[in-house]
Amino acid sequence: MGHRKGFEVGGPRKWLLAVMSLVLLAVAALVFCTCLRYFISEQNQYRYTRDCMNACSHELMKRLNRNINLSTGSSGEASEQIRPRRAFRSYEEYIELQLNKTLNPRLRKLWTSRDWRRKVDVFSGMFRGLMKARLLTPGSKALCIGARVGQEVVALKEIGVPDAIGMDLVPYPPLVIHGDMHRHPFPDCTFDFEFSNVFDHALYPSLFVSEIERTLKPGGVAVLHVAVHKRGDKYSANDLYSTDPLIALFKNSSLVHIRRVDGFGLDTEIALRKNDIEVTALLAD
After folding, report:
1. Which of 5, 34, 107, 261 is 20 to 30 A distant from 267 in Cα terms?
2. Are 13 and 46 in the same domain?
3. What global pTM score does this model have?
4. Which of 11, 30, 55 is at the close of a domain?
5. Which helix (H) or strand (E) element contains residue 27?
C-alpha cells in the first residue's frame, strides 16, 4: 500500500513537470523562430540595400545630369522655391536614407495592415475624379512612382484600370517592381498615365521630371501630389515652396490644372499633359 500511495502522489508531479517542460520547449521554439525571422529580415534588408545601391549608381546619375552639384544636392536649374534639405556625400548615402523609411519594419507592417484599406479608398476617390476629368481611362497603361507596397496600384485596378504597375526602390511583387525615380526601367513612351506623391523625396528634381516625360506617351498625363503649404518628413530630399519651378521643369508638357487636395500630408495636385510630338514640331516651325 505504501508503494501504491507513493505512486499516486508522485504521478501527478511527474505529469506536471512533463507538461511544464513541454511548455518551456514550446516557448523556446517560439523565441528561436522569432529570432530567426528577425535575422532573415535583417539579412533581406541588407541584401535589398546592397542591391539598390548597386542599381542606383552615383556615377550613372552624374552622367545622366552633368549639371547637378552633388555637394548641395541641387542642379543648374535649381530655384529658391525648390530647396534641397541637405548635402549628400554620395548618391548611395541618399539611397540609404530613403531605404531607412521604405524598409522600416514598423512602417511596412502599418502600410500592409490597418493602413492598407484606408489608403486604397482615398486613392480610389482621387483616381475616380481624374477619370471624370478624362485624364485617366480604363484603357490607360498606368505607372505609380514611389508606390511602396502598392495601395495606389490596387486603387487603380479596383476602379477599372487593370494595366497598372508601381515602382519603388524596394519591390513588392506583384504590385510594385524595383526602380529608381531618377531612372525608370522602362522604354520611351510607355505609359498613358503616371502618378506620384513622392516628389519631395527626389534628390534631382530635373531628373525626376525628365524621366516622367521620357516614359509618357505623347498626350499622356502626369499627376503629382506635392506639399507646398506644408513641409515633408525627415526623409524628404527637397522642400517645394511654389508650384511654378516644378511646372517649369516640364519642358514638353502643358499644364492641365492645379488644385488643392488632402492626400496624406500633401496639399496640392498638379496635372500635366505631354505635348503631341507632331504638334510641338509644327509650333516650333
Report:
1. 107
2. yes
3. 0.74
4. 55
5. helix 2-55
How confident is residue 79, by pLDDT bands cut at 50, 70 and 90? low
Read off the C-alpha cell for 31.
523565441
pLDDT tens per residue, range 167-211: 999 999 999 999 999 999 999 999 999 999 999 999 999 999 999
Give the cell for residue 83: 530647396
Q: What CATH number corresponds to the domain at position 259?
A: 3.40.50.150
Torsion (CA) 210, 214, 215, 216 in degrees, nearest 10: 90
Answer yes or no: are the C-beta atoms of 264 and 122 closer than 8 Å.
Answer: yes
The C-alpha cell at 225 is 501630389
Q: Where are the beta strands (DSSP E) in 132-252?
A: 142-145, 164-168, 176-178, 191-196, 216-226, 238-240
In this structure, the answer to whether residues 96 and 12 fall within a common structural domain is no
Q: Which residue segment(s) compose the domain that 77 sits in?
A: 60-284
Q: Is 55 exposed, middle or buried (0-12, 13-18, 19+ CB in 10 A)?
A: middle
DSSP H helices in 133-204: 151-158
What are the DSSP calls for 44-104, one per residue?
HHHHHHHHHHHHS-HHHHHHH-TT-BTTTTB-TT-BTTEEES---SSHHHHHHHHHHHHT-
Could you give the number of structural domains in the chain? Answer: 2
